Records
---
Amino acid sequence: MPTYNLNVNKKNHTVEADENMPLLWVLRDLLDLVGTKFGCGIGQCGACTIHLDGVASRSCLMPISSVGDAKITTIEGLSEDNSHPVQKAWKEVDVPQCGYCQAGQIMTASAFLEDNPSPSKEEVRSAMHGNICRCSAYNRIEEAVNLAAKM
Amino acid sequence: METTNNTISFNRRSFIKTVGLSTGGLMIGFTLFEACKPDSKVLLDLETLNYKDFNAFIKIADNGMVTIYSKNPEIGQGVKTSMPMLIAEELDVPWEHVLVKQADLDTTKYKGQVAGGSQSIRSSWMPLRQTGATARQMLINAAAIKWGVDPSECYTEEGIIKNSRNEKLSYGAVVSEAALLEVPENVKLKDPKDFKIIGKDIKNVDIDKIISGKPLFGLDYKVEGMVYAVSLRPPAFGQKLVSFDDTEARNVNGVTDVFQFGDKVAVLATNTWAAINGKKALIAEWSSDEKLMSTEEHDLELTNLFDSDKLKAVRSDGNIDRAKNSADKVIEYTYEAPFLPHSCMEPMNFFAHVTDAKVELAGPIQTPEGTARQVAGLLKRDIETVHLALTRIGGGFGRRLIGDYAVEAAEISNISKKPVKLVYTREDDMAGGFYRPIVKYKISAAIKNSKLVGYHLKETAVGSSINKSRASYFPAGCIDNYKVEAAQLPSEITTGPWRAPVCNFLATAEQTFIDEIAEELNQDPVKLRLELLEKAKKNKADLEWSPERMIGVIKLAAEKANWGKSKEGVYQGFSVYYSHNSYVAEVAEVVLKDNKPVVTKVYCAVDCGIVVNPLGAKNQIEGGIIDGIGHAMYGEMRFLKGKPQSLNYDSYRLIRMMETPLVETYFVDSNEDPTGLGEPSLPPVGAAISNAIKAATGQRYRIQPYLKYMEEVIEVVS
């Protein structure tokens, strides 16, 4: 099997994997970074969202061979101590119910706010529309993104 | 999601646990109280403190820090936060000094380790408070012995025992002695007006771990040497495995083993991706699906059942036939809802390691005890040798009351003799459901002299069915001649509890029908409900629910929503329901955008007794309402010759952010004991929106998913 050098959360890793293995499973099963979640496997739910060179991306659809030397950030690397504004806002608003989709929600929100630091209400709703929360904590997700934008 | 009575038995043996009391040593260099100040420079690693077991629920460290075990599964309903709050309140410790841990399944220490029927808090309210209060009294007694004073001269304040001579001892200083004392009986509980933790907004105890992606869920659970398993199951309910060819599957990089068990084939691999690919490479032949039913046939059969002799009376008051025969008018409508999968975000998965000596299980399950017993039965093991660790659960909604996937993991580990993590893909999850049953309600009303004199409801469904208790919910007791009948259609398709079982659509049908009666009588729908409830007050002895409390939420919701006085272009719909021992009234608001109705806001009034954690409670209510709207609008699983037709979120629509309305929640101020919150806000919302849509469009939606009507509207418009 081919070998790949990955930069994940500012650390270099060497992994041996099938070229088609999605980054999601590389992170979870090979690198023990289980914060990135498996939801649907077809890019529909957003639970597996990570940053690839700062861009929110669905890791379940991304073969390891396509990553190259792009810098990968996962929920574990968003901050050292939960100090990222989106994490702080998530805690302040007490967003989660079951919590399973939240890593993907937070990764989508943090990349979005990086691009658009003062979004309108409609822009927030549209940016978060791709992430499913089966517990339907959508109103708190929206509130937390708006709060993070102000931090 | 019915549960049995889960009281916690109290006896000396379970309460006192002396193991671990011999290790001592005070933390030196700082005190807990300094460390817990907001500006503290001392970082506390709470998990590494020197804790001493006090009882099955409580450990206290030398420095007074407390660990509280939460016994019930956490599926997102918030009990891992709210149940320890009950103990901490009566133990009288500051919440900031509490570390919460999830308890494993342990039938010797705990009873009723179940997440179902929204009963966790209701059934734990007294037992967990007694646990905390009893521990507090024992700590006081130990301090009193040390001081040589009578316990009645001592009191506690935030984890410190004090006496009338102004002496002080922290809980940590007397925990060793206290744990050995006689367990006092009939300890006094706090007066609710003295609560310091119950009734306060407390954040989710796992929040820091959730937002930083720490391993918490079943899918995150790993042990050394573990292999991943994915199973191939029959594509249609009722099909059998005839033969399979695993040549290609075995060639997939990472696949370590392939074998048949029952009508399934397990693929084991060193990682999940390889196991999924191995399964895809299997070539299987299945028995004929010719005789298996499709949704069109279910639909027809359920309609035919209404006029069959299979209908059985569930409740009958007065004489419905006479009431109908002598009525001025009888109105009758039929309401229909489809099969629904649960769609938990964390797909079904479980860890199992079966060895000759014991069985280790870990994962997301709402019924740990029943599931451990099932595994013990299957493997012919003593239940004492089965250990089950509970993980945090990525959604339950009733699906994880059934432990088929945990049993399957144990079966695979037993055959392979390896530690195994069984993983369902989303497709496996949606195709391997215990679905909300497809159901129809035909309801008729007899009207005489402009009054409702008779009410007749017939239910036909696959699987679960209305029972005596649910047949006695509103409007039972409100109408002299009242009859509920039910008939079931047998099917190979497995059905099971789905958030607010039966009520999730029964409430929609009945609360829509109440509005249809109001229309017929040319009466305000809120006034009609209040009038009916006046009658129920006289039949109270016969009802498990309180007409007064239902009137209370109706009035509160109507007041907050400004019922009957909405702004121009905003159309309102009302609904109210009692379930899971709680009362919920809702007003939905709908506007028209491009001639299509859009739900913009829901006002909600809830009477669930004392609200233990308002922050979590509000989250549950909002979630239930939005979940209910989403499934009423979009949810539908169809079958073609027994085969599920939607296998992933590209063909199965769940509600998303842009479809989410605002929700305003109001709790009735109450001193009643707390009742269910995870389910009761969902049942009323289907009718609240259908009634609002009727007001907005003039069209009555009686069949879910409602999206079908809107697609019709689009066709007409374009």
---
Amino acid sequence: MDDLTREFLIESQEGLDRMERCLTDLEERPEEKDLLSDIFRSVHTIKGTTGFLGFKRLEKLAHTGENLLGLLRDGKLVATPPIITGLLELLDGLRGILKIVEETGGEGEDEDEVLIEELKALQELPGQAAHKTAKSAAKATKPKAAETKTVEAVKEEGSPTGTAELATRSRAQLLTLPEATEAPTPTKTTAGQTLEAAEAQKSKSMAATDSTLRVDVTLLNRMMNLVGELVLTRNQILQATAHNASFTLLSRRLDMVTADLRESVMKARMQPVSNVFSKFPRIIRDLSQVLNRKVRLVVEGQETELDKSLLEAIKDPLTHAVRNSMDHGIEPPDVRVAAGKDAEGTLKMRAYQESSHVIIEVSDDGAGIRVEKVRNKAIERGLITAERATQLNDRELLQLIFLPGFSTAEAVTNVSGRGVGMDVVRTNVEKIGGKVELESKQGKGTTLRLRIPLTLAIVPALIVKSRGQSFALPQGALSELVHIPPERYEQEIEWMEGAPLYRLRGNLLPLVFLERMLKQGGEGQPGRHRDNFIAVLEVDGRRYGLVVDGLADPEEIVVKPLSTVLKSIGLYTGATVLGSGDLALILDPGSIATRAGVQMNLLEDRTEQAQNDGEGDGQGAEYLVVEAAARQAAVALSDVLRIERIPVSRVEYVGCRPVLNFEGQLLPVEDAGGILRDAASQSDTEERQVTVVVCRDGNRHVGLAVSAVLDVSTGSQLKEAGTDRPADGVTLLKDHVTSVVSLSAVEALPEMLGEGWSGETTAMVGGTR
Amino acid sequence: MNEAGNGKKAMVEQSGGRQLAREKRDRNEVLTEVCSVRLGETLYGIPITHILEIVGGARPERVPLAPEFVGGLVHYRGDVLTTVTVRRLLEMEEQEAAQDILVLEGAHGYFGLLVDAVGEVLTVSSKDYEANPSILEDRRRVILAGAYKLDGQLLVMLDPEHLDPIRLGTAA
């Protein structure tokens, strides 16, 4: 394919994308001149260039479309729903041919007679009548001259691509047919305002085109790669110069420049989510016709940016989610009215950034998910036993819809109901290191939340060791770590016909020995006489423990692809260079589970899930038992993020409040037992270590200084005698009443030192990174 | 990687030029520049036109479960390079000491060739060339490309194209 054709393809596709957006807008504002001109221009450009490149088929189709659009633009026809449907078909037709051109270089042999006839038929529609109604409607509300002027002005300065002729022509139209510029709606002022807003936005985007340029994605990938390399080199330099004072300034500067550079290159790969969101008005339009639903789409946070490859990856999951909302969520109009709701349903797509993740929500105000229906279906399909189902709470039952093969649809439609869907959504999102959350209120609606990491290239990982070799384990799959000292090996690891198991809080967890899986050592039972660590992993609803013989620090790793030969081993997703300069292979927890034959064990899995999710319902919730100042206290396990052993010297003070510089964030530390005070007053402060339990309290993180972490155990809710009221702040752990630490009681830092403190400022506060 | 590509081109031109100059002297003689490598007692050769770079003293990271011919991974210019161990292919004992790596360009990207040590660049003449002898085992025949008769020893030529891990992977 020559450059000219490639250029043509890219431009045409952009034109058609714009046309698609305009068409869905046009449906709401059928007489907006500007939209029509825009659409006309897209098709006109394609027609012009195809003639030049000699694509006869494309030219013929585009020509027919142009004729129809010409009539619309000249106000001889009004964009009725059938016409818009026809234009969307034209769009699909053009896209189809472009695809063939892209794949084969030719435009294929098929004929577009049917479509062309259809488009011609639309031109002969009683245009007269439609025109008249439009006119009469417009007459009722006389247009404001000012508005017409805005349209005109923007047209002149804002369309550098359009010819002067076009501009004058459209002005002529505006003069002869000023009525047509007004939407025939009674809410005239609001229509006018949105029009103006749209115009303003457009002129802004036009200006943007002058200062942007197209860059090959492979070049960006290469740059990202090199920046990753620079980050590694920087890490090594920082390590090497840590003890040399004269280098400190230089290396700190290198550190900053590298961080900035990394951020800029990452930004270059970012695209606004509107690139994906813009497909949905069309999908929703088509679906609402097929499904007989009335749906209004509300989009928020379109400008939120996400790495290009991730954006591609969430396209399908989002489409699934939207289909589900349309089919199962939003009810048909009559049902909605009967339920006292607006006949028109609302589908909301919202994107926003939350620290290092982008959250994308798809929510509807439909019927919600009926939990009992989910339960019955799951039992009927044999995904869960009836007995087991009775033990699950609503929240857990809701999770069942993520199982493969699950569908509550009464009948299989071509929209959804084939039982593939939610599990695909979850698998795809987890594949890129994201998470899926679901919330549903019966009768009120459903919200699906996708939590996507900002970038794929840099992943937080735990470095584990097996037989002296380092491997990286993505943190996303990791839920906890268990240490088994050699003397406890015999008791803790149980065997069932050769299958190793570990009793994790009463449930049997299948174990996979990494060393065995990788055939690193000889045969026989591994690791009897050394320390073992179980990394409890959770992937695709499967849960297992990966046994390794060593742990190193967590690191942010830069993923490097492997050659085909090594990729085909199937257990590694890539390799990375560690801060020490060593190479480490990145393990794929999903493939390891599959290779080891770990099945989805619903019974076990769900109990764990129940306890982890047990937010505040107290029943059977799990607690971390800690000791502070010779007293035992409990912290809800679901709130615990991690446990740190740190030297006392790392704790710093803001006023008299102890704080910790934790991963670049300032963490208020609660020192109820006076442990920090005691430790700091000792003479050998340098060596002194303290334990800090890092917890989540709503959106903030707090640390608790404790003298020891004792155990994890299940607590039961106590009731106050006589009142039958659950007692707050205490729980029954191993038959002892234990007080539960109230995290919200931990005082927030003074306002000026609050959440915003991160990044550069930490260098000033901490200096101990 | 671009730099390396350019370097290679420069090398090609250079050696091409020299070939031309010497060809004038003797029409029947074609001179080739060969990078000599040592593996055990034998001297092997690879045409320098195939070599992008030589990395010395590397200790590749092992890859558990990888095919036998894979010598491990090394960090090379921001990428992770798969290396092929020539020792294993020639059924020699694996060596513990650091090895040299020849970086070659294969059909689907770069790969490395692990050898004991890289020697000097020799200029050999087509006059001294002989194809693979017929008594060679099949397994070795595929990766060898004849030999040059030097004074007192043979320079056994390795065939870079057949050493590409992708080819070795499909053959295995």
